[in-house]
Amino acid sequence: MLDAYERISEELNQAPWFGRTPDLTRMDALLDELGLPQANTKNIIVTGTDGKGSVCSYLHSILGRRYKVGRFISPHLEEWTERITVGKDDISKEDFARLYVKVMEGAKKACRVSGEMPTVFERLLAMALLYFEEQGTEWNVIEVGIEGHYDSTNLLPAKAVVVTSVGMDHMRLLGNTIEEIADAISAAFRPHAVAVIGKTDPAAMNILEVNARRKKATVYRYGRDFWYDGKFLSYSGSLDFQLALRGVHQWYNASAAIQTVLALSSTELNNIDASDIQEGLREAFWPGRMETVRENPLIILDGAHNPHAAQSLRTSLDLLYPGKKWNIFFAAMKDKDWRSVLTQFLDLANHVYVVRMPYERAESPETIVEFLKEKGTSSSVCEEQDVIKCDEDALVFGSLYLVGDVRRLTRNAVHSF
């Protein structure tokens, strides 16, 4: 018999990810019913195509050295509870179940106004806000959902908004060009708040800055106001730092986090000093991103699932493992541009194993194998369990669902991490 948390997990797996209409009515009605959000909450909103989770992890770790900090992220890799964190601890399964019941009670009443029940993301965001209120957090680091004008986080007050990057993903909702996507992501900027624009396409940066300034935000732009060249640099000074997270792109993600903290330090974060930033960055961990889960033979997991993230992964592999060939384990969702993702790694492949995944959204492995045959790449279909049976160095990417499943399998295998 399933316990309350397991029943709720099953319900969330079956619940709608998108509403019938793209608007904020559902979330607005739900927040009103629950008495949220509180106007005095100090939130930092993190948006962008890739790097959101890493930047959230950096900010959470830095601020957590001096303040009680809540963090809300998506998606999770293994458990729903990973999405809501206070301090160093994820929400317990008992509290998760309790708050889900409370939110759904409010949702049924709010439905009379909105006409439909909240989506999965909206339910979880409401739960996070309730939990942060109960725990008395001083700051919250909140990752957006799908970005754009109708992201539920747009209803929350914020002291700062960080745009990590702009790439080709979620085009059905955000637009078909970099410029259109940047314009949609700009909806996250808050009037008179801090706006930090991370390293990304120059055309996107121009659009982001124009839109931020229209809201009279204080803008800090990578490459002009701050940058990375072996250390964090800005016109106000420099900072050496080390990271536990691997990957070239992490230097830029960390730089955006540093700039956010510095921008707020004069008024909002006056307890944070340079050592807090350095120690926070050194201690920050974000699973499933260039993560080694087995040393010998090697298994590396990465959540790269769009062309922009794939390019970052490829750059990091070329730097850290120059000329190395891999047994690639790959899977993807149907709605992702998996062909552009996979093509970037074909010259690194000894063989590509296309993993069959137990998810309705997953692309058929036979379809991917057919594509690889056309490219002249050796490939075959395998099961998730086959990843940990591989006796040669393996690279696993293409889907966060795959990464989460392999993490679980690896932890349960003889090789622990």
Automatic annotation (TrEMBL):
<keyword id="KW-0067">ATP-binding</keyword>
<dbReference type="InterPro" id="IPR036615">
    <property type="entry name" value="Mur_ligase_C_dom_sf"/>
</dbReference>
<feature type="domain" description="Mur ligase central">
    <location>
        <begin position="46"/>
        <end position="259"/>
    </location>
</feature>
<dbReference type="InterPro" id="IPR001645">
    <property type="entry name" value="Folylpolyglutamate_synth"/>
</dbReference>
<protein>
    <recommendedName>
        <fullName>Dihydrofolate synthase/folylpolyglutamate synthase</fullName>
        <ecNumber>6.3.2.12</ecNumber>
        <ecNumber>6.3.2.17</ecNumber>
    </recommendedName>
</protein>
<comment type="function">
    <text>Functions in two distinct reactions of the de novo folate biosynthetic pathway. Catalyzes the addition of a glutamate residue to dihydropteroate (7,8-dihydropteroate or H2Pte) to form dihydrofolate (7,8-dihydrofolate monoglutamate or H2Pte-Glu). Also catalyzes successive additions of L-glutamate to tetrahydrofolate or 10-formyltetrahydrofolate or 5,10-methylenetetrahydrofolate, leading to folylpolyglutamate derivatives.</text>
</comment>
<dbReference type="GO" id="GO:0046872">
    <property type="term" value="F:metal ion binding"/>
</dbReference>
<feature type="domain" description="Mur ligase C-terminal">
    <location>
        <begin position="288"/>
        <end position="383"/>
    </location>
</feature>
<keyword id="KW-0460">Magnesium</keyword>
<dbReference type="GO" id="GO:0005737">
    <property type="term" value="C:cytoplasm"/>
</dbReference>
<dbReference type="InterPro" id="IPR036565">
    <property type="entry name" value="Mur-like_cat_sf"/>
</dbReference>
<keyword id="KW-0436">Ligase</keyword>
<comment type="pathway">
    <text>Cofactor biosynthesis; tetrahydrofolate biosynthesis; 7,8-dihydrofolate from 2-amino-4-hydroxy-6-hydroxymethyl-7,8-dihydropteridine diphosphate and 4-aminobenzoate: step 2/2.</text>
</comment>
<dbReference type="Pfam" id="PF02875">
    <property type="entry name" value="Mur_ligase_C"/>
</dbReference>
<keyword id="KW-0479">Metal-binding</keyword>
<dbReference type="GO" id="GO:0008841">
    <property type="term" value="F:dihydrofolate synthase activity"/>
</dbReference>
<dbReference type="GO" id="GO:0005524">
    <property type="term" value="F:ATP binding"/>
</dbReference>
<dbReference type="Pfam" id="PF08245">
    <property type="entry name" value="Mur_ligase_M"/>
</dbReference>
<dbReference type="InterPro" id="IPR004101">
    <property type="entry name" value="Mur_ligase_C"/>
</dbReference>
<dbReference type="GO" id="GO:0004326">
    <property type="term" value="F:tetrahydrofolylpolyglutamate synthase activity"/>
</dbReference>
<keyword id="KW-0547">Nucleotide-binding</keyword>
<dbReference type="GO" id="GO:0046656">
    <property type="term" value="P:folic acid biosynthetic process"/>
</dbReference>
<dbReference type="InterPro" id="IPR013221">
    <property type="entry name" value="Mur_ligase_cen"/>
</dbReference>
<comment type="similarity">
    <text>Belongs to the folylpolyglutamate synthase family.</text>
</comment>
<comment type="pathway">
    <text>Cofactor biosynthesis; tetrahydrofolylpolyglutamate biosynthesis.</text>
</comment>
<keyword id="KW-0289">Folate biosynthesis</keyword>
